[in-house]
C-alpha cells in the first residue's frame, strides 16, 4: 500500500513542508507521553523509582544509536523513505508499550522510541530546511525548534489528560498515539522527496560514526557543551522525576497535573524560542545560564514548601532558561564548527545533550535512596549551578578573546 502511495505522491512543496513538520512534532510528542504514566507503571508492575528512572534513561540508548550509526542515513536514502522507516519504528515502540506485560517490555519500547526520535529528528529537520520557501535557513531552524517543543508539550498534556480521565490509561494513551502515527505515515508517503540522487542498496549506506572536536576548537567548545549538558539535565529531571516530586512532596497523584507541568515547561520554551529570534547566540546562552540558578532555587523552594503554585512559577522560569541555553549553545556550536567538520562537532554537542538528559536523572534517583528526595535534588541543583558558572566563566573568556 505504501509503495503505491509513494508512486502517486502528489503533495506540493508547502503541504509537504507541513507534513515534514508534522513528522517532527508527532515523533517528539511520543517522548514525554510516558511521563504522566510512570506512577501507574510503578503500581501496576511494582517498580521502584530507580527502575522507572532507568526505563526513562533507556531512551538515550536509542538516541545514541541514532547519533553514532544512523544520523546521516537520510542524506543517501532520502528524507521520505527514512521518515517512513522511523515512523514504523515508532509504531513498533508504541505497540510494545500498549501490549506490555513485563517491565522488560518498557525498556525495549523506550529504547526503540529513542532510536525513532533520534533518526527522525535529524531527518525531519533537514527535510524542513529543504522544503522551506525562505532562503534564510534560520527561519527553517526556528520552525523546527518550535514544532519540536510544541510536540513535546502536546504529548505531555494529552497523555496526562487521557491518563486522568479515560479508562485503561496504560492502553488508551497508546491507542490514540498509534492512530496519529499511522495517519502521519500515510501523509508522509504522499509527500515530496528532496534528495534527488539517492542510493539504491543498503551496501552504499555510510554508518561510520563521526564524532569529535578539532583541537583548535576545544576551548571554544567547552561553554556550549557544558551548557547543553546542564540544560538537558534539567529537562531530564522534569521528564523522569516530576511525578515523584509531585507525589512525595506535594501529595498530588494526578497524571493530568504531571502532564500539564511538563507541557508548561516545553510551552514556555517554545514561546521563548519564537520571541527571541534576534538574540545573539552567546547572549542567549549566557542568559540561559544566568537564569539556571534562580530556576533551580525556585524548584527547591516549591518542593520544600509543597506548593504547586511555586512549582508552576519555577517551571515557567525553567522553560525560559532551557530554551535560551539550548538555542544559544546550539547556535554557538554551529558558529565555531569548521565547515568540513561540522557534522563531527555537532555530534559531540548532541552527545553532551543526550548524556545530560539521562545520567543526572539516574544519579538523583540513586542518591535519593540513601539521602532522600530533597537532599538528592539539592545536590542536583548545586552541581548544575557549578556547571553553569563554569560555562559562564569559560564562555566569557572566549568571547573576550574573539572581540
UniProtKB/TrEMBL annotation:
Citing just one GO molecular function, the answer is:
transmembrane transporter activity
Q: Where in the cell is it found?
A: Cell membrane
- Topology of the protein relative to the lipid bilayer: Multi-pass membrane protein
For this protein, the parts annotated as crossing the membrane are 16-38, 50-70, 82-101, 107-131, 143-166, 172-190, 220-241, 283-302, 308-326, 346-368, 374-396
> Which keywords describe this protein according to UniProt?
Cell membrane, Membrane, Transmembrane, Transmembrane helix, Transport
Q: Which residues form the Major facilitator superfamily (MFS) profile domain?
A: 16-403
One Pfam family matching this protein: MFS_1
Q: What does UniProt give as GO cellular component?
A: plasma membrane
PROSITE patterns, sorted: MFS
Task: Supply the SUPFAM superfamilies for this chain.
Answer: MFS general substrate transporter
Main location (coarse class): membrane
Q: Which domain of life is it from?
A: Bacteria
**Protein name, per record:** MFS transporter
Which species? Answer: Trinickia symbiotica
Amino acid at each position: 500500500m505504501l509503495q503505491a502511495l509513494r508512486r502517486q505522491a502528489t503533495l506540493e512543496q508547502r503541504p509537504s513542508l507541513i507534513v515534514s513538520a508534522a513528522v517532527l512534532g508527532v515523533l517528539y510528542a511520543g517522548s514525554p507521553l510516558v511521563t504522566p504514566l510512570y506512577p501507574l507503571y510503578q503500581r501496576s508492575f511494582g517498580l521502584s523509582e530507580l527502575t522507572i528512572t532507568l526505563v526513562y534513561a533507556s531512551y538515550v540508548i536509542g538516541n545514541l544509536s541514532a547519533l553514532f550509526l544512523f544520523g546521516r542515513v537520510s542524506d543517501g536514502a532520502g528524507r521520505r523513505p527514512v521518515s517512513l522507516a522511523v515512523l514504523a519504528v515508532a509504531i513498533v515502540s508504541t505497540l510494545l508499550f500498549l501490549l506490555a506485560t513485563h517491565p522488560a517490555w518498557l525498556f525495549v519500547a523506550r529504547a526503540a522510541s529513542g532510536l525513532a526520535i533520534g533518526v527522525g529528528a535529524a531527518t525531519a529537520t533537514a527535510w524542513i530546511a529543504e522544503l522551506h520557501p525562505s532562503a534564510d535557513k534560520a527561519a527553517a531552524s526556528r520552525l523546527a525548534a518550535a514544532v519540536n517543543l510544541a510536540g513535546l508539550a502536546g504529548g505531555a498534556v494529552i497523555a496526562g489528560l487521557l491518563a486522568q480521565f479515560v479508562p485503561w490509561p496504560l492502553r488508551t494513551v497508546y491507542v490514540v498515539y498509534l492512530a496519529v502515527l499511522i495517519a502521519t505515515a500515510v501523509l508522509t508517503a504522499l509527500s515530496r522527496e528532496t534528495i534527488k540522487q539517492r542510493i539504491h542498496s543498503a551496501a552504499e549506506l555510510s554508518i561510520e560514526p563521526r564524532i569529535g572536536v578539532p583541537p583548535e576548537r576545544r576551548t571554544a567548545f567547552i561553554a556550549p557543551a557544558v551548557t547543553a549538558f546542564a540544560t538537558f539535565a534539567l529537562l531530564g529531571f522534569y521528564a523522569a522525576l516530576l511525578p515523584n516530586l509531585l507525589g512525595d512532596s506535594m501529595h498530588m497523584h494526578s497524571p493530568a497535573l504531571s502532564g500539564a507541568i511538563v507541557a508548561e515547561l516545553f510551552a514556555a520554551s517554545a514561546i521563548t524560542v519564537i520571541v527571541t529570534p534576534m538574540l545573539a547566540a552567546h547572549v542567549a546562552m549566557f542568559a540561559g545560564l544566568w537564569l539556571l540558578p534562580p530556576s533551580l532555587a525556585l524548584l527547591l523552594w516549591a518542593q520544600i514548601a509543597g506548593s504547586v503554585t511555586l512549582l508552576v512559577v519555577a517551571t515557567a522560569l525553567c522553560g525560559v532558561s532551557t530554551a535560551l541555553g539550548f538555542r544559544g549553545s546550539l547556535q554557538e556550536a554551529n558558529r565555531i564548527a569548521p565547515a568540513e567538520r561540522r557534522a563531527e562537532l555537532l555530534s559531540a554537542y548532541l552527545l553532551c545533550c543526550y548524556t545530560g538528559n539521562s545520567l543526572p536523572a539516574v544519579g538523583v534517583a540513586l542518591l535519593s535512596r540513601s539521602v532522600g528526595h530533597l537532599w538528592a535534588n539539592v545536590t542536583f541543583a548545586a552541581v548544575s549551578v557549578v556547571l553553569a558558572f563554569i560555562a559562564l566563566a569559560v564562555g566569557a573568556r572566549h568571547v573576550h578573546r574573539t572581540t
